Amino acid sequence: ILWNDTPPEITGSNITINYSDIEGGWIGPRGTANIDTDPLFADPANEDYHLTEDSPCIDAGTPDTTGLNLPAWDLDGNIRVWDGDGDGIAQIDMGPYEFDAPSCAIDCEQQQIEKIHIVSYPNPVNSSSDNLNIKFFIPKPGKVKIQIFNIKGQLVSTVLEQPLNTGDHTIHHSLKEVSSGIYFMKLDVDGNNRAVKKMVKID
Questions:
Q1: What is the pTM of this model?
Q2: Above 60 in pLDDT, residue 91?
């Protein structure tokens, strides 16, 4: 969902955009099922980008997620592919939150934890120390990338990007330059098998 962005986040035309809500529309040559309609966020002025019940983005995302390696849950820990509009067909919503979906809880997490996982501590992080400890496990050797995003989905920092061997790993990262708020840490191995961890920094 690209809405009320200044300046617009899309530049150039040699890209393909599918199943997205883009303010002003997408005039590029390649794309499918894009819309240009107010997403009806819950409270964008206070950075609450959950969808409201009349949002056109509900059940309007990619209908076939096969091969996309999506986690089983959204950023709230709720089931990611859910029938939000009650038409009997479960389809992913546009944006990071699934409207009216129940908690994914243990079952969803267990599906992913066998492949890859990441934890951070302390959580919340107190600005008096600003030090974050990140522990993660990878089931096979690969190129590991750990990134931190803000609640808008914007990249804040790349913590790590290098090849690592199978097993448990621990790294340390400073959040001194990061303001207080909610963040999400994403772990990718060879562009697949990703895990997401919610974290909070407080003053």
A1: 0.54
A2: yes
